[in-house]
Amino acid sequence: APAVAVVPPLVLPGADFAQWVYRALVLLVISCPCALMVSIPLGYFGGLGGASRRGILIKGANFLEALTRLHTVVFDKTGTLTRGVFRVTEVVAKNGYHRNEVLKLAAAAESHSNHPIAASIREAYGQEVAAGVVKDYQEIAGQGIKARVEGRLVLAGNDRLLHRENVPHDVCDVEGTVVYVAVDGVLAGYIIIADEVKRDAAETVAGLKRLGVKKIVMLTGDDETPARHVAATLGIETCFAQLLPEEKVVRVEELQASIPEPRRDKLAFVGDGINDAPAITRADVGVAMGGLGADAAIEAADVVIMDDRPAKLVTAVRLARRTRRIILQNIALALGVKGFFVILGTLGVATIWEAVFADVGVALAAVLNATRTLGIPKT
Fold first, then answer.
1. Distances (CA, A) of 68 to 81, 161, 330
2. pTM of the predicted model, to two decimals?
3. Which residues contact 59 (CB under 8 A, 6 or more apart)?
4. Are the beta carbons of 188 and 101 closer than 8 angstroms?
5. Is the terminal CB of the chain with fewer CB neighbours within 10 Å at N or C?
6. What whole-number distance in Å separates Cα of residue 67 and Cα of residue 60?
């Protein structure tokens, strides 16, 4: 504007200084960035509000933007892709033990645990565990329980726990989630537990693939066989099983390092349990199930799905991309109209009142366009 006001009168013969000052004022009015400064934040606020209306809490516009560029999505299994509602389907006794005794020992060992698998074993046992029966209780992360029950050392956990405690066993490949029970270093039997896949889990995986997500991975602390079965059912090609919480973080870091353009493309981790919190924190976008999820996971997450439906992640990505498109439309509209009127004002074609009208008009149009972020197409 100072250049428009000063340079032409000094260079052009017969140029009127007052006329060029007026044109400079027109340039100042039309170049006011209110359309951009109002519509862009309003677009993100609309996107965040539209997501919250659909039960998706996104903790900032930067995470809404990151959802538009997902390259890899990593899922936990239990409680995320499956309901996390376990039930005992079979009890198998070994080495002279009876099925009822195996179930009783497992229920006693699991009496202090709040894990869903432990709850299903106690429910199948159907009786209260007497106080003082369990001593020296020890919960081993990602493996199981070690405790003394009526003076006997009882192990209740996965195959990794048996290897850790050097318990001989010849049963490793069993369909379903398995809790092995060992007493004083001898395998007493095992309990098979079923978990139901969420109805919209397969739809979620298919929806993310349609949106262009290049890689979908499942990480779980469960045994290899049930994990592979769930992954195959849902159409997930890559699955890592028998992982401790810290090993999940390592896998997430490896997957992040394998992304071709890490500055542009992002990785999301979806989980629900307290063991998922470190991986949620490490991911570019951490997503937690907010209905039954652990408080630590919800606190660590950048996106919280309040009704525990994984398909809401597909909705969040679509909403984020729509928000970004609307914001880019506002930027193009504001810069295009203002650029056009800058040229007209500099040439003396546009008056200051036309500049005011164009400036306010563009701002109103951009604001109205930004309100579209509150909605989302059904398909």
1. 22, 41, 18
2. 0.74
3. 301, 302, 303, 304
4. yes
5. C
6. 11
How far apart (Å, rounded) are the C-alpha atoms in residues 370 and 20?
36
Beta bridge partners of 56: 305
- pLDDT average, residue stretch 311-335: 92
- Under 8 Å between Cβ of 248 and 219: yes
Question: What integer is the mean pLDDT of 176-187?
Answer: 86
For residue range 279-293, list pLDDT tens digits in order.
999 999 999 988 766
What pLDDT score does 172 carry? 65
Structure token pair of residue 56? 């998706």
Residues designated as active site: 76
Among 157-166, 172-181, 269-278, which is the least confidently predicted range?
172-181
Tokens 């850790």, residue located: 164
CA distance 328 to 53: 23
Nearest to 94 by CA among 160, 218, 24, 180: 180
pLDDT at 176: 67
Q: Which residues contact 1 (CB under 8 A, 6 or more apart)?
A: 24, 25, 27, 28, 31
